[in-house]
Design a protein that fits this description.
about 325 residues, alpha+beta, 6 helices
């Protein structure tokens, strides 16, 4: 087998690393790819993670190289131990993302490369002497987070090395804006547009009160971040006042969002719901969405035979 080297990322790896990342993104969400500049920026800072990014004390990117080709890569974070850091992250290490080539006839030793890279990640955690070890799959692309079910080869690496899924599972859904409900009049209901927590908020007002609202984020397709920027948006929030349940507001809020998104030149809308909230998922499916993937959030390093995350004793 040709020599396999696990080493720190170098700037001249940038094109191969971007290709490897985009191959994983393409298996999760259609029509999305990231630029080299986006990948390089993500290795240095993640301004979109405005809560957790300031807690990061150190970042390390490792690659596995074979036949002068990057076949696997991982980006690691070490969080500070100060009181300002959230309890879950304090003094923890995290694999922010891990990508590798799946086994193939022309790359039969892909699993060896992935396992050696993972061993290097765990060794880095040991050098950092972190309290806990976490893992995710948050590539620098919209919609890609947790560990999507579309990456069984990554899941296998995580599980072989002792990571266990300990969090929630979310359903990621997609709809063509043209397939969403059409506008229909609702007697006594008017709609207002404002800035919300997670994007543009469209509020249904009835009886001088807010009956419900939907928020859509249309900032997913910034050209400096994506090589291909077809119009995309996602639902940041969808809320109905319990007093107005069963009156069709959900569908009409989606219709209002679709009308606004068409004016924005957006053709696809994404949504996210907990897998155990079947009612919410079924509502979106009935409104024109389809399931894109399921993703498993929160992985912790728990080697077999241990009941807690690996790391130094608490």
């Amino acid at each position: 087998m040709p020599a396999l080297t696990v080493r720190p990322f170098r700037r001249d790896d940038r094109d191969q690393l971007t290709d490897l990342i985009n191959a994983h993104v393409a298996a999760v969400v259609p029509g999305v790819s990231v630029s080299v500049n986006t990948v390089l920026s993500d290795l240095e800072r993640q301004p979109g993670e405005f809560i957790t990014d300031p807690w990061v004390a150190e970042r390390v990117t490792l690659v596995a190289e074979q036949r002068r080709h990057v076949v696997a890569a991982a980006h690691l974070l070490r969080y500070r131990s100060g009181a300002e850091v959230g309890d879950h992250y304090r003094d923890a290490g995290e694999i922010d993302w891990f990508v590798c080539r799946p086994p193939a006839s022309f790359w039969p030793d892909a699993e060896v490369a992935a396992d050696r890279l993972m061993a290097a990640c765990l060794a880095q955690f040991a050098r950092w002497d972190v309290r806990a070890r976490y893992a995710d799959g948050a590539l620098p692309a919209p919609i890609v987070y947790g560990l999507p079910r579309n990456w069984p080869h990554i899941r296998a690496v995580y599980e072989r090395s002792g990571f266990r899924h300990v969090g929630d599972t979310e359903v990621v859904l997609i709809a063509r804006v043209a397939d969403l409900p059409a506008l229909e009049p609702l007697p006594g209901v008017r709609f207002e547009r404002s800035l919300g927590e997670c994007g543009t908020r469209l509020t249904a007002c009835a009886d001088a009160r807010a009956a419900g609202f939907i928020e859509v984020d249309t900032a997913l397709s910034r050209p400096e971040r994506h090589a291909r920027a077809a119009g995309r948006a996602d639902i940041g929030n969808l809320h109905i006042d319990p007093a107005f349940h069963g009156e069709g507001l959900e569908r009409q809020l989606l219709a209002q969002a679709a009308d606004w998104l068409r004016l924005c030149g957006t053709d696809r809308l994404f949504a996210y719901e907990p897998a155990d909230d079947k009612e919410a998922v079924d509502l979106l499916l009935a409104a024109g969405f389809r399931e894109l993937t399921r993703t498993d959030r929160r992985w912790e390093h728990r080697p077999r035979g241990t009941g807690r995350a690996a790391g130094r004793p608490n």
